[in-house]
Amino acid sequence: MVEIADRVVNRAREGDVEAFRTILETFQKPIFQTVYRLVGGRFPNEVEDITQDVFMKIFRSIGRFDPERGVKFSTWIYTFVKNHCFDVLKKRRLQVVNIDGAGSSDDDGNSGRFEFESKSEIPGEQLLASELHRHITEAVTELPDDQRLVFVLREYEGLDYREIANVAGCSEGTIKSRLYRAKEALRRSLKRYVLQ
Prior knowledge:
- With 196 residues, this protein is mainly alpha-helical.
- It has two domains: 87 residues, Orthogonal Bundle (Rna Polymerase Sigma Factor, Chain: A), CATH 1.10.1740.10; 97 residues, Winged helix-like DNA-binding domain superfamily/Winged helix DNA-binding domain (Arc Repressor Mutant, subunit A, Orthogonal Bundle), CATH 1.10.10.
- It has eight helices and no strands.
């Protein structure tokens, strides 16, 4: 997961333009990817606009970030991403997520990764891979918002349970439960494609 030096955050809180630029350069790609995974890849121009909106909110509110509260700056940022994306989803009634990255291990030693039977680059099998990609997207789309958020932040952004709990505003136990339910739901939906 991306993190940034406290001194940069402190300079940004004081209005330093270069510090803002450093934050933008550091978080632009991971935030764009998270927005894309939460809101969906069907409207790429909107994903870019949503990402810009998130950064505007972050920069307007950065003076309220309090490092003394023990929350990482990146966790604070992902809270903005979550809130803004969920607002967009509610307003547009759009629940689309694109999964195209690798999974990660959870703290209990379970890989959580979905391994698929076909990894070939043979042209005929590329069509199958494309079909699989569509099925994955649909399966994640069907997850409830809270499970989808936990899945994306854990499996794609690599946040630990405590950080996700801070973003979601609930306990680590709740996060583990949501992640477990999300993975089980995806395994059921994708059982034809997931290696057991």
